């Protein structure tokens, strides 16, 4: 093994360990916020922690002390009900104080249960009505390109949102306008409010669909940090005038076996005594 290769491997190992630690702290934040409310979108949030940690620790260009920095990359939370996950990421990224997470979903908090751009630093759009994120992302990407900004736009959406016609109109526009500064990230957790995605409205074959709309698409295990890094790297190589999409299969409740794929996981109710069990299980399942 060459010296250069071993150094590169060590650097990758450090990078992965830092992302894993970020994700682990996020999961603790999510459990703490969930416990204060006794319920919520905890399962999805645990499922996307590895993904958001990779994005905020390794991909996104931002200034923690200046969330409105004009050249920042925009990360759009189209799925506003995942706000609990993004608050944890924003806190670990230094954009929010970790202590502020204690106010989650209380009166007068800047951290409401569903995302509000006017309330929260680092929250780019008010999401929640599904299908709005992609059209907004396309408009932002066009606007940024029009003023020669180096900023990139990331839109984070869910498999449930692939049911929305507006998502596909926007996807078609993005390739028509050759928006190489736009990346979609899709959480494929195989569940949506009304049931399993495969039985409500099937989105497979999902890679073929995006590619047929002119996007560069890669599908990865969204709970494997190495795969996430490789997926993003792969998307960033090659043609620069195509929009890109990272399709991420995730496990609801990931890291806490008690909560993984439990019944009625879309809006999870967790008994009082289970929160401490969740913390202990989280300590036993740290990704190396
Ligand atoms: Mg889903």
Automatic annotation (TrEMBL):
<feature type="domain" description="Transketolase N-terminal">
    <location>
        <begin position="24"/>
        <end position="282"/>
    </location>
</feature>
<keyword id="KW-0786">Thiamine pyrophosphate</keyword>
<dbReference type="Pfam" id="PF00456">
    <property type="entry name" value="Transketolase_N"/>
</dbReference>
<dbReference type="InterPro" id="IPR005474">
    <property type="entry name" value="Transketolase_N"/>
</dbReference>
<dbReference type="GO" id="GO:0000287">
    <property type="term" value="F:magnesium ion binding"/>
</dbReference>
<protein>
    <submittedName>
        <fullName>Transketolase</fullName>
    </submittedName>
</protein>
<dbReference type="InterPro" id="IPR029061">
    <property type="entry name" value="THDP-binding"/>
</dbReference>
<comment type="similarity">
    <text>Belongs to the transketolase family.</text>
</comment>
């Amino acid at each position: 093994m060459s010296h250069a290769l071993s150094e590169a491997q060590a650097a990758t190992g450090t990078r992965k360990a830092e992302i894993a630690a970020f994700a682990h702290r996020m999961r603790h934040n999510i459990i703490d916020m969930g416990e204060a409310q006794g319920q919520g979108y905890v399962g999805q949030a645990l499922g996307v922690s590895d993904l958001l940690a990779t994005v905020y620790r390794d991909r996104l260009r931002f200034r923690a002390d200046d969330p409105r920095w004009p050249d920042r990359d925009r990360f759009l939370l189209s799925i506003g009900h995942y706000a609990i996950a993004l608050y944890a990421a924003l806190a670990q990224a230094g954009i929010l104080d970790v202590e502020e997470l204690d106010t989650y979903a209380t009166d007068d908090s800047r951290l409401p249960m569903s995302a509000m751009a006017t309330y929260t630093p680092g929250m780019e759009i008010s999401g929640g009505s599904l299908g709005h994120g992609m059209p907004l992302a396309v408009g932002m990407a066009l606007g940024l390109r029009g003023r020669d900004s180096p900023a990139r736009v990331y839109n984070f959406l869910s498999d449930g949102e692939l049911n929305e016609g507006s998502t596909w109109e926007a996807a078609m526009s993005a390739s028509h306008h050759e928006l190489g500064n736009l990346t979609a990230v899709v959480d494929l957790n195989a569940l949506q409010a009304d049931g399993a995605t495969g039985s409500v409205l099937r989105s497979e074959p999902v890679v073929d669909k995006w590619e047929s709309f002119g996007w560069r698409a890669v599908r990865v295990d969204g709970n494997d940090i190495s795969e996430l890094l490789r997926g993003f790297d792969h998307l960033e190589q090659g043609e620069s005038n195509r929009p890109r999409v990272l399709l991420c299969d995730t496990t609801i409740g990931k890291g806490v076996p008690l909560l993984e794929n439990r019944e009625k996981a879309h809006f999870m109710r967790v008994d009082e005594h289970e929160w401490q069990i969740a913390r202990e299980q989280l300590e036993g399942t740290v990704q190396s």
